[in-house]
Every structure is written in C-alpha cells, then in structure tokens.
Amino acid sequence: MSAVLAAVDLTAGFPGAEPVLEDAAFAIPDGARLALLGPNGSGKTTLLRSLAGSLKPRQGQVVFRGEAVGFSRSALREHRRRVQLVAQDPDEQLFSADVMQDVSFGPLNLGLTDEEARARVDEALNLLGVTALAERPTHQLSYGERKRVAIAGAVAMRPQVLLLDEPTAGLDPAGVSELLATLAGLETTVVLATHDVDLALGWADEVAVVAGRRVRQGPPSMLGDAGLLGSVRLRMPWQLDLLHRLGVPASPLPRSVEDVARLLGAP
Ligand SMILES: Nc1ncnc2c1ncn2[C@@H]1O[C@H](COP(=O)(O)OP(=O)(O)O)[C@@H](O)[C@H]1O
Ligand SMILES: [Mg+2]
After folding, report:
1. What residues flank ion ligand 2 with Cβ within 5 A?
2. What value does the mean pLDDT of the chain take?
3. Which ligand has an atom closest to residue 213 CA?
4. How confident is the model at residue 1 (pLDDT cuts 50, 70, 90)?
5. Domain count, the chain
6. What's the CATH code of the domain at 39?
7. In terms of residue numbers, what domain contains 260?
C-alpha cells in the first residue's frame, strides 16, 4: 500500500522549547485505519497538526501522495481540502450559531453551489447521526454531540485523510462504540490519536506509537511487544495481556471479546 500522507525527517515543536519530534518518520497507508498512540504529552497532537499543515515543521517535510506540502497560503488551502484535522476539544472547531451553519461552513467556502454544499452537509450529518440536531444551537449540545458535529464538519469536506485527535476522549462507552462503528463506515483514510491501547487493537489495521521524539509504526500485533509498550508508559491491550498470562498464542490476532473467547475455546 502506498502512503497517502507522510512525515519525512520531521522535526517539530514550539518556540523556545526542545523539539517534540525530531527526525521522525511516519507514513499513513492509503485507505488505512491507523491508531496513533502515545502517553500524554508525547507529541500526538503535534504530529497531527504538522500533518494537517497547521504547525510548520522546523525541519523536514510533510508529503502528500509523494509531493512535499508547501506553506504558501494557496498550498495550505489546497492541503486542507485533502486533509482535515478535528481537534480534541470540539469548542475549538465549532463557532457558528447552529449545527447546520457550522457543518456548511467548509463546503460553502470551497466555492460549491448551495445545492452541492447542501448535499455534502446532509450526507455528513447523516453519517455522524446528527441530522436531528441540524437546527440546534451548538452551545446547547452535549459534549458527545458537539464532538460528532465537529467530525461532521470535517467529513463534509470529503477529505482524503481524516485526522481525529482523541475523538473518543470524554465519550461514554456506548458513545465510543457508536463513533467507532461510524468511522468504520467512512471511505476515507482515518488516523485516530488515542492513549487507549484496547481501542487501538480493536479498531486499527495499522498502529504507530509516538515516544522519545520518534514514531514507531507497524501492524497491530506490535501492541503485544511488552518491552516497547513499557518503555513508552503504555500497557498491553487486555486482549493480548490475558492470553499472554494464560500462555495462549494470540493468533489470529484477537480484537474483540468474541475473538478472545474463541481463542480460549469458548463455543
Ligand atoms: N502551544 C504549545 N506551546 C508550547 N508547548 C506546547 C504547545 N502545545 C504542546 N506543547 C508541548 O509539546 C509536548 C507535546 O504535546 P502534544 O503534542 O500536545 O502531546 P499529546 O497530544 O501526545 O498529549 C508537550 O510537552 C506539551 O507541553
Ligand atoms: Mg494531544
């Protein structure tokens, strides 16, 4: 699989401080569902903002389908059509009076006709299950609803890559399951930053761990590497931890309770 979006020799950080990422390499396979893991403060948000073009690298490049992303206004405008970042805090994203206006803002700014924009907005509201909220003022919505609306705004742009910064943080368990099911139905490449290793194993087809200013990337089976996880202050996903303790090989790689039960011989 070729990379749709990549960081090459990326050094990124904030003025007056040591870099958060240094000579980091990261590549998002086209069509992947990629979980970006790391403890708090490791640099997940910094990496996502770099990839989205909202934080200019100190060194190195962000590459979209083989071409380095420029930082002129027009290059960034073009980049943001293709790559959409949804911030962890929905209130950073939502600023219009009601849900419909908020989700319409991006598509209308693309210069689409009202009709085309409306079709995209309806589709995004529907995909995120927030059609019934369309007329509601955004400030009246629950946290989980605001998160969904913020994601709908990004989906309405029909990006090729959707970068979601901790989209499940603050949601209740049913909200997390619903959101993951929704994301599974999207056709775009999705990167989801989280510190939840169980969720990563259950959902992702590729994982990456941000630690020590670098990014380690591999298949989800990487989450069975106790040495790697311990060195970056993450624990093993429960699915693999349990099998490991029981001496049962984690193959095929279990993702759900049902998978684990099957490996343990439950009917
Ligand atoms: N705007 C900022 N200015 C200065 N330092 C920042 C800023 N944002 C983040 N940092 C620092 O950069 C490091 C990485 O942060 P971040 O990328 O937000 O980590 P994560 O998303 O993995 O929790 C942290 O040490 C954090 O304090
Ligand atoms: Mg963060």
Report:
1. 44-45
2. 95
3. 1
4. low
5. 2
6. 3.40.50.300
7. 237-267
